[in-house]
Amino acid sequence: MPANLPREWYLLEEKVREAKSLQEKVSLLEKLIGMTPKHKGTENLLAELRKRLSKYRRELERKKKVGRATSEPKFKVEKCGSVVVGVVGFTNCGKSWFINKLCGRKVLEESPREFTTTLPKSVVFLHEGIRFQLVEIPSFFTPEALGCLTVCDLVVILLDGRKGNLASQAAELRRMVERYCSNVLVVVNAFDGREIKGCENGSAVLKVSSEEFERELILERMWKLCGKIRVFTKPPGGRVSEEAIVVEKGSTVKDVLEELSERMVETFRFARVYTKGSMVKRVGLDYELEDRDILEIHAR
User: Fold this and answer.
1) Mean pLDDT for each consecutive 10-residue tract of the chain (300 residues)?
2) Strand pairing class (228-234; 245-248)
3) CA 80, CA 265: separation in Å to the nearest integer?
4) What does the buried/exposed string (b/e) look like for 108-119 if buried means 16 or more CB atoms within 10 Å of the residue's CB?
5) What CATH number belongs to 7-69?
6) Measured distance CA(149)–CA(66) in Å, rounded
7) 237 in the Ramachandran plot: left (φ > 0), alpha (ψ -120 to 50) or beta?
8) What's the confidence (pLDDT) of residue 165?
9) Which CATH number does 73-226 carry?
10) Which residues contact 180 (CB under 8 A, 6 or more apart)?
11) Cβ contacts of 233 within 8 Å, gap of 6 or more
């Protein structure tokens, strides 16, 4: 049975696509669903519209929660990376130094003075297709400062290997940050390479120093803890993109297309997936992707 949609429906649907804000998208999409005829020919269409509406509502609610957690604009962190990592630690533990080492260059000022970081500092760099955003959080630990962690995919707790009971420090900081982000990696700054005692061993604890800083290992550990996958794209006959699309584990071809453009789902014919083992598969929208897959889209 054909949908038989009126011309006004298509005009409103175009407004939904062009809407800039989530609130506007939600409002217009609600009107579009109300305007859509209810019969067997529109069942699939209505299901897709309701799915989009649910997605926009979830995003809107998440942004509202972030706004409530960061009540002071000066502590607001804009998400501009595909993976956002907050770096938290007691004052003078080496947060700026740690971020500079991960970036591979000096981007933040390093100072021996305490509490020199008074506002969140954010840096972005590309590594193996992933746009990492590292955010240095001030050591005041106020709700406003810690509220920045709500946009993070992972929090690195940096401990000072020269001071006190490291297990106690880690536990105290975990209690504070896990209210805002559940993914945590504990890193101990050993400074001059000294032996570290008093911190629990485990897969989520790393040791670093100026003498021993395995940048690749740390970034790979951070990536795995985020629970995401990267998917590279390429046009037919073209080159593979330098920057990947980052999505949740279990995502399908359709999920990646929706990240790129909703129109790509409508014009989709098939895709070719180039896997890590150099295999090539012809797949549809429901195909589940894996980390480092290369996706070649064919449209009609």
Assistant:
1) 75 86 86 83 83 82 63 70 94 92 90 81 94 93 88 93 83 91 90 61 69 91 93 92 93 91 87 85 94 93
2) antiparallel
3) 25
4) beeeeeeeebee
5) 1.20.58
6) 9
7) left
8) 80
9) 3.40.50.300
10) 69, 146, 147, 149, 150, 152, 155
11) 240, 241, 244, 245, 256, 260, 294, 295, 296, 297
CATH top-level class of 228-299: alpha beta
- At 205, list the tokens: 């604890």
Give the domain ranges of the chain. Answer: 7-69, 73-226, 228-299
What are 73's two structure tokens? 């604009």
Q: Report the b/e string of 268-279 with b at 16+ CB within 10 A.
A: beebebbeeeee
Q: 158 near 88, Cβ under 8 Å?
A: yes
